[in-house]
Specification:
By secondary structure, the protein is an all-beta fold. It has strands at 2-6, 9-11, 17-24, 32-38, 45-50, 56-58, 67-72, 77-82, 91-99, 102-105, 109-113. The mean pLDDT is 96.
Length: 115
């Protein structure tokens, strides 16, 4: 199982980033996909989840209306569109594939929101 995460970086408050996570080595379309994040000194938290058929759950109230998760099963890729970014969104963002007892994690990509 392998993930290639991209799209992180340094952005000013109010800016946007789009994270991508391409998975391989497992049946991507059969798995639920999730973006989680971990800020310095804090526990990892689930940001948003998308089912195999595209149903979405946003788990963090502070990102509702700003972050959108999506997936393209033809490209084995999950995305996280992040708009109106705030300094408190600074974290390492991880993609995660899960189904049944299987649970796979990407290596993480750093997002820093700062002026």
């Amino acid at each position: 199982v392998r993930f290639v995460e991209s799209g992180g970086g340094l952005v000013q408050p109010g800016g946007s980033l789009r994270l991508s996570c391409a998975g391989s080595g497992f049946p991507f379309s059969a798995y639920y996909m999730r973006w989680s994040r971990q800020a310095p000194g804090k526990e990892r938290e689930s940001v948003a989840t998308i089912t195999r058929t595209g149903d979405i759950t946003t788990n963090v109230d502070s990102v509702k209306g700003r972050f959108i998760i999506s997936r393209d099963n033809t490209k084995n890729t999950v995305y996280l569109q992040m708009n109106s970014l705030k300094p408190e969104d600074t974290a390492v963002y991880y993609c995660n594939a899960f189904y049944g007892l299987s649970d796979y994690w990407g290596q993480g990509t750093q997002v820093t929101v700062s002026s």
